[in-house]
Amino acid sequence: MEMSINIILLLSGIGLFGLFLGWLGSSIIARTGVGKAREQAKEILNEAAKDADRKKQKIVLQAKEDWFRKRDEQESRLKGRQRKFDQMERELLEKEKKFVKKENEYSQKESNFKFREREIVEQKEAIRTKDEEYNRIIAEQNQMLSKISQFSIEAAKNLLLQNLKHEYKAEAAQFYKDFLDKAKENATREAKKIITMAIEKNAADHCVETTVSVVHLPSEDLKGRIIGRDGRNIKAFEQATGVKVIVDDTPEAVVLSAFDPVRREVARLALEKIIGNNRIHPQKIEEIVRSAEKEVDKTIWRCGNEVIARIGVGRLHPDLIRILGRLRFRSSYGQNVLQHCEEVSTLTGAMAAELNLDIKLAKRAGLLHDIGKAMSQEQEGTHVQIGLEIGRKFKENPVVMNAIASHHEDSPKTTLISVLVACADSISGARPGARRDSIDGYIRRIESLEKVADSFELVKKAYAISAGREVRVIVQPDKVSDAQADLLANEIAAKIQTELEYPGQIKITVIRETKAVSYA
Length: 520
Fold this sequence. Notes:
The chain is mostly helical. It contains 14 helices and eight strands. The relative contact order is 0.04.
């Protein structure tokens, strides 16, 4: 038991000693590690301090280099600015020297001007003195001349002025006459030259008489078919076309008569188609007439556009083109009106080119001057009045409107182009072959118009002018009042319309003029 206890105690003692030794060893080991750590820490701190010193020196050196570099740059900039300032200072000094020099020059000039001014004042004073001396001498001479000639100075002056006035007036009159004669001669020569050149540039065809339409038949038998049973075919044809069909003894021909040339052309085309058709009846006639109307409308449109393209007058309203194309079927004294308008347009444009006027506007005015004739069969009034209405409807240029209104002297001409249009209109109508109206027929028509007007009791004298388009009647003013003049014009127009045949319209103008003459 004791032994066991002793063993246990011994073992416990050994265990405790072992624990002590372990604790002591661990303490010794711990102390040894701390020392080494401290030594390592010191070494690290020493290295860090050395590294920091190195970096510090490096940064200080870099900062010094930057400072020296910036100082050098700043000094360089300052030196550059200093050089600029020095240059500017030298320039200012140079300018100042020039300014001083100019100031000296101006001072010298001012001194010269003052000196010249004094000289001029002295010269004026000398001239004034001489003028007074001359006036005194002239006055003495005038008095001496007045005593010698027995004329006062005022009377001599008036006589001299009258003589000079008479002399210069005669010279001025002669100069004016010479100048006017020379101007007329040059104007006439230039006008003839311009008109001749314009005519040479235009070569229009001679016109063909188109007052009636004659349709030739292959045989006489067709006349019966055209008339139809109880005349129903010819009645249907006349009703559809508005044209009178004359079937007489003329061999193998039928005459179409109508005041409207477009209707007459429709009837001609329709009748030619009907002749080629085996079956002729009223329903077929109406169908053929409608087809002919479409063809004529296409022809009107084509003719209008072709004329515009040939002449070159710019764009026109489509409805105005159709109205222009209708002139293809209208004639005046045997002259085709569309060809006449084209010819007038070409002549007007050629003369406008010679005078440096607006060529396109001149051609337009010449082309549209007779546009009223296209509708004169359908509307009341002269072709001039109808043309003005058409122009206003399509808002034509005022120059074109004046050309339409004045080409027959119905209105005053306000532009040079209107004068050219009237001139070209006369040239186109008067050139040989343009109008197939014979001279004998023309004279008879003029004489007939004047004879009808002269047949009235109150008429003093009558004159047919403008190729028979107007009759001017001169009456006795002491026997005819204004109201009676209006009545007389209507009576003459009614008698002409009853007794004579004439194309277009005739204007009757009654002139009642009173003159008062007195002598002293």
